[in-house]
Design goal:
696 residues; 14-stranded parallel beta sheet; 7 helices; 7% helix; globular
Length: 696
């Protein structure tokens, strides 16, 4: 607890502009009011503008504001007339993004006395507007057995006409706002699909279609077979889409159906898949969606875009119906400083919750992000000349997002100037509802950013997607990720030898499937320069560590427990990936982008300055020292000759002295044999891993 408060002292603050009373906003307010508690504003836009006018009138500058570094003093600060917008409980619809610019600074936007405040990009619909389809002229659209559960709402009669478009999405496709989504009592529905909650196996492929990855620009869809006769009940193929892992287990795709041949059980798609259609692997599966006849389970819906009618399965006793409308972020901060959002729920946008571009000392604290079409929050620099610094997301809960959780960017890769942006003490789970690969719980890039004390779990692909330099990943609890993937890692990076200087320490990786090729830490395709220290890997994939041809990665003072292989290492750059290290190819381009053999890179990473003289195809300086391996079938796969494997690693089939192995408390007792077998082994602070108790 003390460690965490000290961390927050450096980053978390509140600004009190003495002489300015808080401005209030309420769902029962009026923008013609004065923003007082008795006469609050109705909109956040009006409150923002009022704060701007007051600051100009009183000539209050950022440096005239009192900065508090004690996070626990929020209530006291709010009682001392802080420069604040206090929002009364209720739901606030955002028809457009609320923007803050460089003139906006030292401002707190918070829920009033912890009242429940929702910033929504969706419209609420009275459940009484829903009518049963049974007995109507629409009932014949649906199978007779489902009709009694299906209700409909004429959206056009309610003035709603922007339904968005379903588009090809997934691996190698740009992120775009989702189409309209339905939320019933706060839970996201999904376009009616089959199978309902699983996927069907792709049968023999008759035509793999064009293969764009091989330079095939013919744009020809593929044809593959399916089992059973379920598609025979679909009256039309208009606007039916198919999701699948059509080739590799790390490349999802959504393609539109061109036709169904029910006589030979084949689907033909309009678009190709980037790698061509394939079958035979366990992950080569599909499901079809946007099918009205398949509304047969709670959460399923279909929108007739021509008539503007929403059809959905009625689970009964509905209290709240909402549809997403806003196609951009709810809040946008651009070159702002010292803006803090506290205790707000961001939801129901087709885009993101909050974006910060080139901001400084801005913070999202104690907020909830849910039911968004893309990411919860994005911290980024507009360009490398305006590096935003020390922005954070702390103590937030993120779930049910369409893409990932947080994009944590910032810093200048050419100068190695660190941003110091951070994500701390957040719970991130059930993301990737729409985009299922390479949209991580936290995507970290740039230079010098940090992810700490988060719990990231329940996702089809990676927890952390890493790029850039000198990031710190520590004290995180990461589990049950890569649920639908193959050849993936909970923490993944690769294909750029200039991206190095990372420290991964004191994390707990556990319960990652070992049926496919999955890792906890995946140094893919020549990835270099990561120190992995003091982590615990328990049932953390088929190979918790995979070093794919890179150098300068170290594994020291870690504990590996119960996995088929602990560390997999290979020399792929001498084999199938040798083209990447040939002159003028992929790696040379990436190294030249940052002037790898000149300062600051040549000074910070002297081994990188000699990259080409040092036989880059051969892995080297990958140190494995002072680790504990408990009930590991094979400690190293691929050859110890590719590692600097010391004699101070301890391999055992017995409990080495955990506090409570059965209860998954892997803190070592002071009497543990590990401290005798490995001189200098440092105790791993297991109790400090994961989400910690914090004040308000």
């Amino acid at each position: 607890m003390k460690r965490y408060i000290l961390t927050l002292t450096a980053f978390v603050f509140s600004f009190c502009c003495f002489g300015i009373k808080p401005v209030y906003v309420s769902t029962t307010g009026n923008d013609s009011g004065d923003g007082s508690f008795e006469h609050p504003f109705l909109t956040l836009q009006k409150a923002r503008d009022a704060i701007r006018e007051i600051k100009l009138a009183e000539e209050i500058k950022p440096d005239s504001c009192y900065i508090s570094t004690k996070f626990s003093c929020w209530d006291k600060l709010l009682s001392k007339n802080p420069c604040s917008i206090l929002v009364r409980g209720g739901s606030y619809y955002f028809p457009q993004t609320l923007e803050f610019g460089s003139q906006d600074n030292n401002l707190t936007i918070a829920s009033y006395e912890d009242e429940i405040v929702r910033f929504s990009g969706g419209i609420s619909i009275d459940p009484e507007k829903a009518k049963p389809v049974a007995g109507s002229d629409k009932e014949n659209i649906f199978p007779e057995g489902n009709r009694s559960h299906i209700y409909m709402i004429n959206l056009k009669e309610l003035g709603i006409s922007n339904f968005g478009e379903i588009k090809q999405s997934g691996f190698n496709h740009p992120l775009v706002p989702s189409s309209m989504e339905l939320f019933i009592d706060g839970k996201p529905g999904h376009l009616a699909r089959w199978p309902n909650d699983s996927a069907a196996v792709i049968g023999p492929v008759l035509d793999k279609g064009s293969v764009p990855a091989d330079g095939d620009t013919g744009n020809r869809g593929g044809t593959f077979t399916y089992s059973g006769n379920r598609p025979s009940g679909w009256k039309t193929t208009d606007n039916i889409w198919i999701f699948g892992y059509f080739h590799y287990g790390w490349a999802d795709d959504v393609v539109k159906l061109a036709s169904i041949n029910t006589s030979n059980n084949t689907f033909t798609t309009i678009q190709p898949h980037v790698y061509g259609f394939y079958y035979g692997a366990s992950w080569n599966t599909w499901y079809a969606f946007n099918i009205p006849e398949e509304i047969d389970a709670p959460g399923e819906y279909y929108i007739d875009r021509n008539e503007g009618i929403l059809y959905f399965y009625n689970p009964g006793n509905i209290k709240q119906l909402e549809v997403s409308m806003l196609e951009s972020q709810l809040i946008k901060l651009d070159q702002s400083s010292g803006i803090l959002f506290k205790g707000i729920t961001f939801e129901n946008s087709r885009g993101e919750g909050v974006s910060m571009n080139s901001t400084g000392h801005c913070l999202l604290y104690g907020c909830t992000f849910r039911n968004l079409g893309l990411y919860a929050a994005i911290i980024n620099d507009t360009d490398e000349s305006t590096v935003g610094k020390k922005n954070g997301v702390v103590n937030c809960t993120i779930y049910q997002t369409g893409a990932g959780g947080i994009k944590l960017f910032g810093g200048n890769r050419k100068t190695l100037e660190a941003a110091g942006n951070y994500v701390e003490n957040c719970s991130i789970h059930e993301y990737n509802r729409i985009y299922q690969t390479y949209c991580a719980g936290v995507q970290i890039s740039g230079v010098g950013n940090r992810i700490a004390n988060c719990e990231i779990y329940n996702a089809p692909h990676c927890a952390i997607l890493l790029a850039g330099n000198e990031h710190l990943i520590e004290y995180n609890n990461i589990h049950d990720v890569c649920l639908d993937a193959d050849d993936a890692g909970a923490l993944y990076y690769g294909r750029n030898p200039s991206e190095r200087g990372h420290l991964v320490r004191y994390n707990y990786f556990h319960h990652i499937n070992d049926e496919n090729s999955l890792s906890a830490v995946y140094h893919d395709d020549g990835a270099c320069g990561m120190a992995v220290f003091g982590n615990i890997f328990y049932k953390a994939g088929s190979k918790p560590s995979l070093i794919g041809g890179g150098s300068d990665n170290s594994y020291i003072n870690n504990i590996f427990i119960e996995s088929p292989v602990a560390i997999n290492v290979d020399n792929r750059l001498q084999g199938w990936a040798s083209d990447w290290v040939t002159p003028g190819n992929y790696f040379e381009q990436r190294l030249n982008e940052i002037n790898y053999n000149q300062p600051p890179y040549s000074i910070r990473y002297p081994e990188l300055a000699k990259y080409w003289e040092d036989n880059p195809a051969l892995p080297k300086r990958n140190v494995v020292d002072k680790n504990v391996f408990v009930r590991i079938n094979k400690v190293v796969q691929g050859g110890k000759h590719l590692l600097e494997y010391s004699d101070y690693n301890y391999v055992t089939t017995e409990d080495p002295g955990f506090e409570n192995e059965q209860g998954q408390n892997f803190k070592l007792k002071e009497s543990s044999d590990v401290f005798k077998k490995i001189p200098g082994f440092q105790a791993i602070p297991f109790e400090k891993i994961g989400i910690q108790e914090m004040g308000n």
